[in-house]
Write a structure and sequence with these properties.
The complex is a heterodimer of chains A (181) and B (226).
Chain A (H helix, E strand, L loop, with lengths): L4 H9 L4 H24 L2 H18 L9 H26 L4 H10 L9 H10 L3 H11 L5 H8 L3 H21 L1
Helix pairs in contact in A: 1-2, 2-3, 2-4, 3-4, 4-8, 5-6, 6-9, 7-9, 8-9
Chain B lengths: L1 H5 L9 H19 L14 H27 L1 H5 L12 H4 L4 H4 L11 H31 L3 H5 L3 H7 L2 H15 L1 H8 L5 H7 L2 H19 L2
The chains are: A mainly alpha (181), B mainly alpha (226).
């Protein structure tokens, strides 16, 4: 059974129970954060690297967590930033090696052992990759997690109106992509 | 036999244990009233709150999902019909075995940072200097080669000194071959083909000769500034 965030934070601040609390935090949030990351970077190996970095940052920064936001929101924000940093670095590397990064993510999808170009769920994944990064983030949070705009606004630090507009635009683009494919 | 030997001689009032719990509970409020601090919770919880809590949370989650689904049905009806199940898979037991490398969370050893900016600057300057040197050297060589045979280079040659250095045999050889062969005037005179001035003057009309002499004297006077 998962402990409440408040209890976890108290345990973490106590040196004798710090590691126990940290392990409990990992267990509590690992799956949600993993899927949040995986939807952005596609590859399991990359997702694992990012998730490790996220929790390392949590270990370093949790003592200074001010609790003016929920622990879950704070963790999501770290994971989001890590994803964007990773994708940015990947883009720079692609520029240097003169390869197309957008195709890189699509190719990662196509390289999946279960990929089936005729199945709608895979077409949907390819369509999502055609979106700009931040729009992709918004779409994933709303479409897969049904996250309210209010909560999303705290994670992405963007107004609810802008997020709603972004989601609507993304959904229409994806639908068009699927209809044309 | 044994049971009889450990039997106590005391008797218990009939039905004592049956009513003990009730008796203790009846006594509790009296004891608590004697305590200086009341340990009863200060905050009141609405009646039936905990009974309905799970349903309340579930309805909120469902409402959020429903709201999201309704929104999608309005803006993208085709997308709404597609399953939102992710097709990706995770290696078996990944979440059970997930652990963060705690050594990575410790402060990493700070390696000595050597700036390569300075080195690059020196390297760039050295390359630039080399290129400039090659260009200058090439230009000098080109200039010397291109202009080595010009009139200016011969102008400074002392002809008398150069001739004095030559041996008599060389001079005779030169006069016999090169000089005579190249002196067309001598060839023409030796050939006897060129007309003499006297013969030529006899064929020229008097008027032309007068005009020529007049022009020649005018030209001489101009040169002398008269």
């Amino acid at each position: 059974m998962h402990l409440e965030d408040r209890e976890l934070l108290d345990l973490f601040r106590d040196t004798s129970t710090k590691e126990v609390a940290f392990t409990a935090i990992i267990k509590k949030f690992q799956e949600r954060l993993y899927w949040h990351v995986r939807k952005m970077v596609i590859s399991h190996e990359d997702s694992n690297d990012i998730l490790q970095n996220v929790f390392i940052k949590v270990w370093k920064g949790l003592e200074n967590f001010r609790e003016d936001s929920q622990l879950y929101t704070w963790l999501y924000r770290i994971a989001t930033n890590e994803c964007l940093t990773f994708l940015e670095q990947r883009k720079k590397k692609a520029t240097i090696s003169l390869t197309d990064d957008e195709n890189g993510l699509s190719n990662t999808i196509k390289a999946d052992k279960n990929f089936d170009a005729n199945k709608l769920e895979w077409k949907l994944q390819l369509a999502i990759q055609s979106l700009p990064e931040r729009q992709r983030l918004v779409f994933n949070l709303r479409y897969y997690d049904a996250m309210p705009y209010e909560k999303m606004s705290k994670i992405l630090e963007t107004s609810e109106g802008a997020l709603k507009a972004s989601y609507h635009h993304a959904a229409k683009k994806i639908e068009q992509y699927i209809l044309n494919s | 036999m044994l049971e009889q030997s450990i039997q106590l001689p005391y008797a218990v009032p009939e039905g004592y244990f049956d009513s003990l719990a009730t008796t203790v509970l009846q006594q509790l409020p009296k004891e608590e009233a004697q305590l200086p601090i009341v340990s009863q919770p200060v905050y009141a919880v609405p009646e039936g709150y905990f009974d309905g809590l799970s349903n309340s949370i579930l309805s909120r989650v469902t409402a959020s999902s429903q709201e999201s689904a309704d929104e999608l049905a309005t803006i993208a009806p085709v997308l709404h019909t597609i399953s939102s199940q992710l097709p990706y898979q995770v290696p078996e037991g990944y979440f059970d075995n997930l652990s963060v490398d705690m050594q990575s969370t410790e402060q990493p050893q700070v390696a000595k940072v050597i700036s390569i900016t300075g080195r690059i600057l020196w390297l760039r300057m050295a390359v630039a200097a080399s290129i400039l040197g090659i260009i200058l050297l090439g230009a000098t060589v080109f200039y010397q080669r291109g202009n080595g045979d010009t009139y200016a280079s011969y102008k400074n040659v002392d002809l008398n000194k150069s001739v004095n250095k030559l041996s008599d045999d060389d001079l005779i050889k030169y006069l016999d071959n090169d000089y005579i062969a190249s002196n067309t005037e001598t060839i023409i005179l030796d050939d006897g083909a060129a007309p003499s001035l006297e013969q030529d003057a006899q064929t020229v009309p008097d008027d032309d000769l007068t005009q020529y002499l007049h022009e020649a004297s005018t030209h001489k006077r101009r040169k002398k500034g008269i």
